[in-house]
Amino acid sequence: MIGMNNSPIMVVFVIAAIISCSTTPQLLDVDNRDQIIKELNIIADNAREYYKKPVRLGGGGNTFFGWTLHPSFSATRYGRYRTIVSGQNITVIGTGITLGYDGINFVKVVLISGPNTITSITIDN
Questions:
Q1: What is the 3-state secondary structure (H, E, C) of the chain?
Q2: Residue-wise pLDDT tens digits, 109-123
Q3: Residue ranges of the domains in the chain?
Q4: Is the whole model's pTM more than 0.85, yes or no?
Q5: What pLDDT was estimated at residue 30?
Q6: So what's the pLDDT on residue 26?
């Protein structure tokens, strides 16, 4: 039986549990965004390696044309990815597994990379 001396501890525990439950979805959103961005960076690095590799060695020879997303990256535990390839740029779109801030649409991040560096990252929701 819980005595009066344990009541403050129980109140603190209940308050902590309520705060934890109310902030967990936001933390999951942030974590999912972070993981999507990490995976987008890995995909972009892979595409830039292809771009720089000579054609005779299986690369693009200074173009992204011919590069394809490796099947292991089309869907991961953090999201799904698709790419739009042009000669000098690659766009990678990552759609997360958690709902974004609006509570309706999934987290979405769009990364655009040129031959040497990422030129844009847009976080939607």
A1: CCCHHHHHHHHHHHHHHHHHHHHHHHHHHHHHHHHHHHHHHHHHHHHHHHHHCCHHHCCCCCCCCCCCCCHHHCECCCEEEEEEECCCCEEEEEEEEEECCCCCCEEEEEEEECCCCEEEEEEEC
A2: 999 999 999 999 999
A3: 29-124
A4: no
A5: 80
A6: 55
